[in-house]
């Protein structure tokens, strides 16, 4: 046994001693890596057939591993140092080509596995989204949990450059946008794996959260560039077709059962404002078939809310008042859902995943209508029913000082 072990070791040494250095994994010092965290994708403004890629990485000081670098040259590459992010740009015939041009003009090795966000400029999104992210979903260096956003009204490059003038790092800001949007109930993040699946089974349709650059007031007559969630970009036939703004984006999350929390302001019986916090919601898709023909669909939504604030100094916990507020909330949410359906159908997009829910409920009948689904979806009747229920009022049963108002 010992002789076999020694023989195995000798053979292994002889085999590997002749290997070239490129046949084994190469070690790269972390100081020599450019850790890409955000990628911006645009159609080139100079050459419409070309692609512009913009990458952002955290700029570290020398003691932290140093990602500072001098300006590159050649190949249309610009490297712009900044106190928050290192922004690098390049053009190419394809995204792969553009990414290689960046690598060819920097003294560091691009490390793509740290990428957290992909920002797609509006014009690129209107052209063909899949065309611009094929490189990212195909290449082995990228992970499939990268979050995707559409940039409304501008290029991803301009958003990255302008926001970099603020005091915040772009990846940290995008993280807070995604987290805070859930509290507002207006957006739900989507990663590359989910997006590609959506395209594959929803007839080239998808809903992608979108962001926009705004000027935020930070002091007396002082503003700074900031990023905020806008709602959803609606995709049809792999192209950006329309937007659903933050005023009705909550309706999308209600229909798709993605609403985690939101605030609805109504009136009580005294005429005062009351803020209700949605804590739970569920929408059931009920298909109505006549034989094998789908005639209509009912979206039945149940919403559970708590009383978050009452501005009237008067008794509030009685049935008439609760029913009055519940009816208003139901009407508001029902209106938002109907407006969402109107925009979606005008855009000829199946981005709400209604077909999935029908397929799970009626798999046999779904198979018979699958080929004509888009035509059916765009023309059939869709009913919306919302039932609201107020559960509790947090720490107070009645408003403070209401007895003193008597």
Give the tally of β-strands: 14
The largest β sheet comes out as: 10 strands, mixed
Instruction: Work out the helix count.
Output: 12
Distance between the termini: 98 Å
Count of folded domains: 2
Indicate the proportion of strand residues.
25-35%
Instruction: Please estimate the helix content.
Output: 25-40%
How would you spell out the order of helices and strands?
A: HEEEEHEEHHEHHHEEEHEEEHHHHE
Radius of gyration: 27 Å
Q: What does the average pLDDT come to? A: 87
Quickly give the structural class.
Answer: alpha/beta
Low-confidence stretches: 62-66, 68-74
Shape: globular
Q: Which features does this protein show?
A:
406 residues, alpha/beta, GMP Synthetase, Chain A, domain 3, 2 domains, ten-stranded mixed β-sheet, four-stranded mixed β-sheet, 12 helices, 14 strands
Overview of the structural elements:
The chain is an alpha/beta fold. It has two domains: 216 residues, no CATH class; 160 residues, Nutrient germinant receptor protein C, domain 3 (GMP Synthetase, Chain A, domain 3, 2-Layer Sandwich). 33% of the residues lie in helices and 32% in strands. It is built from twelve helices and 14 strands. Strands 1, 2, 3, 4, 5, 6, 7, 8, 9 and 10 form a ten-stranded mixed sheet that branches. Strand 8 and strand 9 form a beta hairpin. Helix 8 crosses helix 9 and helix 10 packs across helix 11. The termini are far apart.
Provide a brief overview of the structure.
With 406 residues, the chain is α/β, with parallel strands linked by helices. The protein contains twelve helices and 14 strands. The protein has two domains: 30-245, no CATH class; 247-406, Nutrient germinant receptor protein C, domain 3 (GMP Synthetase, Chain A, domain 3).
């Amino acid at each position: 046994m010992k002789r076999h072990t020694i023989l195995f070791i000798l053979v292994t040494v002889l085999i590997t001693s002749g290997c070239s250095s490129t046949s084994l994994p190469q070690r790269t010092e972390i100081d020599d890596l450019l850790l890409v965290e955000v990628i911006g994708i645009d159609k080139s403004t100079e050459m419409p057939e070309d692609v512009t890629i913009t990458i952002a990485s955290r700029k570290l000081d020398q003691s932290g591993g140093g990602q500072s670098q001098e300006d590159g040259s050649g190949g249309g590459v610009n490297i712009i140092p900044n106190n928050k992010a290192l922004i690098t740009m390049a053009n190419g015939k394809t995204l792969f080509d553009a990414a290689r041009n960046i690598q060819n003009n920097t003294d560091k090795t691009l490390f793509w596995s740290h990428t957290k966000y992909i920002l797609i400029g509006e014009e690129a999104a209107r052209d063909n989204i899949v065309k611009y992210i094929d490189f990212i979903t195909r290449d082995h260096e990228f992970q499939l949990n990268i979050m995707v956003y559409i940039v409304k009204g501008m290029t991803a490059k301009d958003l990255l450059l302008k926001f970099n003038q603020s005091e915040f790092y772009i990846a940290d800001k995008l993280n807070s946008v995604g987290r805070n949007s859930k509290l507002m109930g207006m957006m739900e993040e989507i990663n590359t794996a989910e997006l590609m699946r959506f395209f594959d089974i929803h007839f080239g349709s998808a809903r992608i959260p979108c962001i926009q650059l705004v000027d935020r007031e930070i002091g007396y007559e002082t503003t700074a560039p900031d990023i905020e969630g806008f709602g959803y970009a609606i995709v049809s036939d792999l192209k950006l077709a329309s937007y659903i703004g933050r005023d009705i984006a909550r309706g999308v999350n209600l229909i798709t059962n993605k609403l985690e929390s939101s605030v609805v302001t109504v009136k009580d019986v005294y005429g005062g404002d009351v803020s209700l916090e949605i804590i739970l919601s569920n929408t059931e898709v009920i298909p109505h078939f006549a034989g094998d023909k789908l005639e209509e669909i009912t979206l039945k939504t149940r919403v559970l809310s708590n009383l978050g604030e009452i501005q009237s100094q008067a008794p509030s916990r009685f049935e008439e008042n609760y029913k009055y507020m519940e009816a208003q909330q139901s009407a508001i949410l029902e209106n938002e859902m109907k407006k969402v359906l109107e925009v979606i159908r005008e855009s000829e997009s199946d981005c709400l995943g209604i077909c999935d829910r029908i397929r799970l409920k009626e798999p046999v009948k779904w198979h018979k209508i699958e080929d004509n689904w888009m035509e059916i979806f765009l023309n059939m009747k869709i009913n919306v029913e919302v039932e609201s229920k107020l559960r509790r009022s947090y720490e107070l049963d009645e408003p403070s000082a209401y007895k003193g108002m008597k």
